[in-house]
Amino acid sequence: MSAELPVIAIGFAGATAALAGSLAILGLLFRGVAGPLWWAAGGAILVLVAFCWRWGEPGGWLAFLRNPLFVASLLVQGVGFMRFAGGRGRREVTTIACLVLVLVGNQILLPLGADVRSVITNASLGGAAGLAASLAWGVGVERGQLAARLAGVLAGAAACAFAMRVVVALVGAPLAQAIYDNTVTWIFIVGVEFVFVLWLVCLVALAAGAAAEAARRALARERAEGSHDRLTGALNWRGFYEAADSAFAEAVARDQPMALIILDIDHFHAIVIADGRDTADRLLVALMTLIGAELRGDDLVARLGVDELALLLVATNDIVAVAMAERLSQGVAELDWPALGLAHPATVSMGIAERRIEDPTFHAVERRARSALVAAKQGGRARIETT
Questions:
Q1: Nearest to residue 234, comparing CAs of 165, 294, 285?
Q2: pTM of the prediction?
Q3: Model confidence pLDDT, tens digit, residues 249-273
Q4: Which end of the chain is more exposed for a tag (fewer CB within 10 A), N or C?
């Protein structure tokens, strides 16, 4: 069995290094994703642990390093889980950091016997692995990550193994002699390194999943920005016409009414010149807040131009639309103009059109609403017109 040790050692070291390298690549490619870079650092430390465990002679400096390095690896990975979970797990990470100091102090500073050192070492290792298991499992349950839950199970298994060694050491001979037999110790080391490899597999899967999730969020954000106005958060003209065509087709299929309000801020360019662009932007945002309070779940609101807004009201006739327009006009009149930075109150003009049976497309409704808006402007502004 001992003759096979170098071959197995090379296999474990190679697998561990490959997985740690995969983590490092993922971490570097997706720096914006909280976690992978820390897991990569922890994986790299595990490579050193595997090397020390395989080639460290009893009492040598490599044998000394393996235990603090193992807990340090769990500490770094714990920071990755904490960041991945959005800050939860600070207590676990702090405790693992304390256990690193306990291990170093136990193996360097304290004048203790070998048996006592062994108990402290294995208790520290087991405690750190248990805390890492709790953190990984919590993240897996909270975020629905199977890889994190599996990592928690593996760390829990390692914690149980270290705890068993503590129990055996406390029981004493002859059980202690059996458990620390060279063959049993060899099997224990191989088992722990096997857990190392599976643990890193889970971290690679978790990092890849986190990167994929971040890519999906970025794509969704890019699509949202492509169809929404950045200032007001409303749909832009592209997003509005796509959604409006779908809403029109659905209204026709269900034979439901649909009303469109096109709203324009009166003398908007004069406001920009007199009070500044920032003030004009605040006015637009305040107006959008008033509109948002009126809209229902399926209604649409869009910013079609610099000062032109559109409200598409589904399952709504022009009578209800006029009532909403009147409330909006009253809300604009009651705005706190000095707080917005306006020297004079602003007004809005609105044109309203309801879908008719003979309308072939949404654009027919839009043309009538625009005609009504023009009539409101020509009629003296601060008016509501329907057609």
A1: 285
A2: 0.52
A3: 999 999 999 999 999 999 999 998 8
A4: N
